[in-house]
Amino acid sequence: MERDLSEKHPPEKQLSNVSDSSDNRENATSIATNLNADHHDHPETETCDQLASPSLKAGVKVEETDNTSHEIEEVDQEEKENDERIEDNPPPEIHYTLETVSQDIDQFITTLSATPKDAREKTAVEESKDEKMSMEIPVFVEKFLDLVEEKVAKHELTEGKGKWGQNPEEDSSFLEAVNRISKLTSSLDGLRSDPNHAALISRNGGIQQRAMACLEDEFRFTLEDIKHNDQDPNTDAKGKQHEADRCVVQESESSVTDNFLGYSDDAVSKLNRIAKEMIEGGFESECCQVYMMIRGQAFDECFVEIGFEKISIDEVQKMQWEALEREIPLWIKAVKEYASIYFVKELKLAEAIFSNYSSISSSLFSNLTRSVLIQLLNFAEAVAMTKRSAEKLFKFLDMYETLRDSLPAMGALFSEEYENELKAESTTARCRIGEAAICMFCDLENSIKSDTGKTPVPGGAVHPLTRYTMNYVKYAGEYIATLEQVFREHSKIERADSTSRPRYESESQNFNNDNDEETQSPFSNQLMRVMDLLDSNLEAKSKVYKDISLSCIFMMNNGRYIVQKIKGSTEIRQMMGDPWCRKKSSELRNYHKNYQRETWSKLLGCLGHEGLQVNGKVIKPVLKERFKSFNMLFDEIHKTQSTWVVSDEQLQSELRVSITAVVIPAYRSFMGRFSQYMTAGRQTEKYIKYQADDLETYIDELFDGNPASGARKRP
Q1: What are residue 613's DSSP bridge partners?
Q2: Residue 381: which of 326, 436, 306, 325 has the closest Cα?
Q3: Looking at the predicted structure, is the pLDDT value of residue 31 above 60?
Q4: Residue 555: what pLDDT?
Q5: Could you give the dihedral angle defined by the CA atoms of residues 72, 74, 78 and 81, in that order, rounded to the nearest 10 degrees?
Q6: d(CA 62, CA 250)
Q7: ∠ at Cα 460 (454, 465), nearest 5°?
Q8: Which ranges are annotated Polar residues under compositional bias (predicted)?
Q9: Window from 13-22, 164-173, 466-475, 619-628 with minimum mean pLDDT
Q10: 3-state secondary structure string, 63-97?
Q11: In this predicted model, what pLDDT tens digit does every residue of 576-607 receive, in sequence order?
C-alpha cells in the first residue's frame, strides 16, 4: 500500500521545479490537497490509508519538506558564488574611437534601413506599450554621438577663421561624421513614436543642426573668400601688373580660374562636398540661400566693375539725355560681358558645386541670372519710354543690336521653360527699342518739314539742314542691316501719311527697276521719302536768293554734297541705286548750265563783233564802250562771286575751269582783233584793264568765300 502511494504521487516529482520557500509551501499544500483528492477519487485505497499509522504519514511529509529546502539552499549558494566571481573579475571596458564606432554605426544603420519605415513605426508602437519589450538602442550609438558632438564643438570654435583646408584628413573625417549623423537621423525617424527613444533622437537632431551650421558657415566663407580674390585680375588701372595678371589668365585656358570665376579646384571640390552633405542631410534650403546670396553679391560687384549702376525706371525717365547717353555704352558692355562671360562661367560653377543635383544647379543658375537680366531689360524698356528725338536713334540701334545678338546666344544655358520666358521678355524689350528707333528715323521727315526758314545761307553754301540730314543718312548706312530689320519687323508703326510718298515712290521705281527687292523694303521707301523732302525743301530755299546765279550755286553746292554723301556710303548708294545717282548728277549739270548762262552770257555779249563795224570800219566809241562794259561786268562778277562759297573742291575746280574755257578764248580773240584800234598810251590803259592771264588769275579767286576779295586793278 505504501509503494503504490509513493509511485502514484512521488513528492520529488511534484517539487522538482520549485524555486523559493514560498513556492515550497504552496506546493506542499497542493500536494496534500492532491493526496486528499486522490483519496476521495480512489476509494479502493481508503483501507490502506486507514490502516496506515499516523507516524508513517508524518514521516512522509517531513521527508518531502527537507528535500525541497535542500534544493533551494543549493540554488541560492550557486547564485551567490556567481555574483562574487563577477565582482572580482569585471569584463574589460570597451574603448571607442570615431573610426571604430563608425563601423558599428554603419552596421546599425544598415540593419534599421533593412526594415521598412512603416514596419519600424508599427513595431515601435506595439513595443512602446510594454517597456520590457522596447527595441534596445546599442550603447555605441550614445558613444558615437559623444564623439561627433566633441568634433562639432571643435569646429564651432574655428568657424569663419579659415581653418578648413589646413588638415584635409580632419575635414574629411568631419564630413564623414556629418554624413553618418544625417543617415542616423533618417534611420531613427521610424522610432519617433517610441517615447523611450525620444531623448536620443532629439540629441541626434541637435548635433546634426550644429554640424550643419558649421558646414553652412564654411560654405559661405569659402564662397566669399575666393570671390574677393577673383576681383584682383579684373580691377581697373593696375598698370603693368594688371596686364601681367590678365596675360596669365589668358595663357592658361585650362586654368580653373578661367573656368570657375577664380575658384580653385580644391575650393570647388570642398564646396561640392559641403553642398552634398547639406542637401542629403535635409538642409538644401539653407545651402541654396547661401549660394544665392553670395553669388548675387558677386554679380552686383561685376556691375560696379563695369561701371553700370542700378538705375530704376523712374530714375531713367528723369535723367537728361547727356547723362543717359553715357550710361548706354556701359549697359551694352554689361549685357555683352554677362552674356558671353559671366553667365557661362556661372553655369559651370553651379554645375560643378551641385554636380549630383542637376535640377538644383539649373534652378540656382536661372534664379541668379534672372535677377540680372530683369535689371538689364528694365533699363532698356525705360530708355525706350524716354522722349524721342532723331539724335537718339543710333544709341537706340546700338541697344537693339545688343539685345538681338547677345541674349539669344544665352538660350543654350537655360532650361527650355526659362529659355522661352527669357526669349519673350527680351523680345518685348527689343521690340520697344525698335519701335522707338523707327519713330526717330521717321521724325527726320518732321525735321525737314519744319525747317521753313527764309534766311538764305551766305554765299550759297551748303545749308545746315542738308549737312544734318545727309550726315544722319550716312551714319544710318552703318546700321543699314539693322534698320532694314527694324523697319521690316515693325513696319506697322511706319507712318503712311507722308505727302511726298506717292510721287517719290513712283520715281524711285523708275530709278531702281534693277533692284525691285530693295525698292520694296520699308526702310528703302522711307529713305526715298526723306531725300525727296530734302530736295523739295532746298528748292524752296533756293528761291529766297534774288540772284539767280547764286540760287544755282546754292543748288549745286547742296546737290553735290548730297551726291558725295550717298556715294561715300556703299550701303546707302546700293539702296538708292545708280539710276538715282545719275539723275542727281544730271540735275547738277543743269544747274551748272543755268549758272553760266545767267552769269557769263552778258559778259560774253560784250565781246561780240556785232555793231562794232560799219562798212568795214571799226567804230571806236562803240569799241571803247565794249571794253568799258566788259571791265565793269567782270569787276562786279569778281567782287560778288569771290565771296560766294563752293566748299567742294572738285565742284569749285569744275566751275572755274568751265568759266575759263568760255571767257578766256573769247577775250583773247576779241583782244587780238580789236586792241590795235586803241591808241597806245593812256587810252590803252584806260580801256584795256586785263590781259588774258589776269582774267585767269581772277577767275581762280572766285568761290573762295572771302568777303575781303574784290575786283583788283591791274598792277
Answers
A1: 618
A2: 436
A3: no
A4: 96
A5: 110
A6: 110
A7: 55
A8: 14-36
A9: 13-22
A10: HHHHHHHHHHHHHHHHHHHHHHHHHHCCCCCCCCC
A11: 988 999 999 999 999 999 999 999 999 999 88
